[in-house]
Design brief:
23% of the residues are buried. The longest helix has 19 residues. The protein is an alpha+beta fold. It has one domain: Arc Repressor Mutant, subunit A, CATH 1.10.10. The N terminus is likely disordered. The chain is globular and about 35 Å long. The strands form two sheets. The protein has a three-stranded antiparallel sheet with strand order 1-5-2.
């Protein structure tokens, strides 16, 4: 079982995930755009709160994505910021993927047409700066 404070195991990722230059550029643009800053923080809060509520610290997208919807089921964040924010958290080593078969889920309740598609379930390895 993994927690925020644990001894390293075979499945711990000691380094951040590599991202290509194009992705890094897009993430940087989204970071400096004030319109997306609140969306990014909303996504970070949803992911972190979901993971912290679980003993295994897993951030299942089927559990945190509903936190991004209003009472009518409409997304409260720009859809492109969701994937970009998760990618930046992974690149920073905040989220890690243990590469185990059970770390995949089938997406449900998506408002972007991703229902039925596989999605990775990441583990919260450390708190992001925005959550400290």
């Amino acid at each position: 079982m993994s927690t925020l404070f644990h001894e390293p195991t075979l499945f711990d990722s000691p380094q951040a995930a590599a991202i290509d230059d194009h992705t890094r550029s897009v993430l940087a643009l989204m970071d400096i755009d004030p319109i997306h800053a609140s969306d990014r923080l909303t996504v970070i809060r949803a992911v972190v709160e979901t993971a912290l509520a679980r003993e295994d610290r897993l951030a299942d997208p089927n559990e945190w994505r509903p936190k991004l919807l209003d009472g009518d089921g409409v997304s409260t964040v720009h859809p492109n910021t969701i994937g970009a924010t998760v990618a930046s958290l992974r690149a920073a080593g905040v989220l890690v993927w243990d590469e185990l078969p059970e770390r995949w889920v089938i997406t449900t309740g998506s408002t972007s047409g991703n229902n039925g598609k596989p999605a990775r379930v990441y583990r919260l390895a450390q708190l992001p700066d925005e959550a400290r």
